[in-house]
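Hi support team,

I'm opening this ticket because the web form for multi-chain structure prediction keeps timing out on my end. I have pasted the exact lines I submitted so you can reproduce it. The total is 536 residues across two entries, so I didn't expect it to be a heavy job. Is there a limit I'm missing, or should I split the entries? Thanks in advance, R.K.
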Amino acid sequence: MNREQIDLIIVGGGPAGLAAAVAAYDSGVRDMLVLERDVNTGGILQQCIHNGFGLHRFGKELTGPEYAWEYERMAAERNIPIRCGTTVLNVSPDKVVTAVNSDGVSRIEAKAVVLAMGCRERSRGALNIPGSRPSGIFTAGTAQKYVNCMGYLPGREVVILGSGDIGLIMARRMTLEGAKVKAVCEIMPYSGGLARNIRQCLDDFDIPLKLRHTVTAVHGRERLTGVTISETDEYRRPIPGTEEYISCDTLLLSVGLIPENELSKGAGISLDPITGGAVVDEKRQTSCPGIFACGNVLHVHDLVDFVSEEAALAGKSAAEYISGGLDEGAPLDLKPDGKIRYTIPQRIASRDEDVKVYFRVDNIYKNVKIKVINGDKTIFAKKLAAAAPGEMESLTLTGAQLAECGDAKLEFVLEAG
Amino acid sequence: MKQELTCIVCPLGCALTVEIENGEVTEVSGNTCKRGADYARQECVRPMRVLTTTAMTEDGRVIPVRTDSAVPKETLFDCMAEVNRVKLHLPIKRGSVIIKHIAGTDADLIASKDIERGI
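Hello R.K., no limit was hit. The queue was backed up. Here is the completed structure from your submission:
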């Protein structure tokens, strides 16, 4: 086994890992290594060939590969070492990283670790759709890789379950490549995707979006021959008598993303049951000192631009940790009320600086107020004309507001008004 | 006449209302930026879209490509037919033009990525 000592290990060479590496370099770290499982860097961006990335970060509309290239260039300019084709097997709480590639197993002792493993798609197994096991059922991201990276069209007649952005993007992509997308079914009364993707991916091609519908059976032995869809009630249960058969050879699933945290669990890092990612403080440090998390492994983001922003913060924090540690004041625990599903960070460790808090709501709301309460005092309030689960919101608490907090608990409340 | 649109310029996706009189756009509301108003005017006259797809290389791989500006929406499938006829010689540099004035539009099809010869 190879044994190495490296100041900073970054697990994952996607948008989060690369942005963390660049920021760590710019904050003074020179001895670092990015470990990437795939044969090249860029992560999921490589298969996201559509445009719309980078408006916030670069002020222009880029495709996924172009966005990735911007960070690959920045990493190359800084001579940041990247080891592709390398899978991390374990991260220990004392920051020993075990990785394997064609050269064998290495054991790397790191001073700090940034976790940037991204997320994976929820698959058929997680949905309990009854029926046989024919081929032709793919997650939308798998189909995206087939079409965009490998040049295979996985089917001709398609039904898509779930209206998340990947599903919408794939509806357009399959249509452009000559497939017929017969319907997109969404169990909720609203789409989980961006409004602009409903417009340019479905409406442009007259693809029906069936809200409050789900797939209740799949048919076919060797290959999928069709699906049964049903209307659902307010509790998301199929309504008997509303079944409709749609013949198709392909079913794409776009039913949610799950942060990929097996390594974090192995390191004994506390996870947030709502986000599926680590519990972090404002520096993106996990419960394990010196281990940081960012990007979709921490919580699923809407836009890669925000992934880069968060990863840069994690990379900078890791650099501070390596060069002498992070300040810890009296910590504050952030407690969302449920209507606000979660906050990132979940914990504020130091009250010296302004902290930007990201949050997501549990439903579609209009004209609401977000309040941040400490003890019996509202330290911050903000009005939102509209809020939806598909869109991450943020607010900034100033150092002065944080310094005033007497109680160790910060409650995040959503109210009418 | 009023028409409702969803802006596709950025991820905000503003709900736009367009007032049209005698085939002319007289007012746009609901937009948060100027680009939204421009989009609404264009969308009512002739919808334009950026095409992103893949093209085949001579060795059977695919490379991501896009139009360098928006093309009329009704030409998307003509553009696709043209892309699907090419077999690209390698290597290709990101940004290099693959098809000039694709499907007779004002846009060029360009590569979104560098791709080397061989694997």
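A quick check on our side: Chain A has a mean pLDDT of 95. Let us know if the file doesn't open in your viewer.
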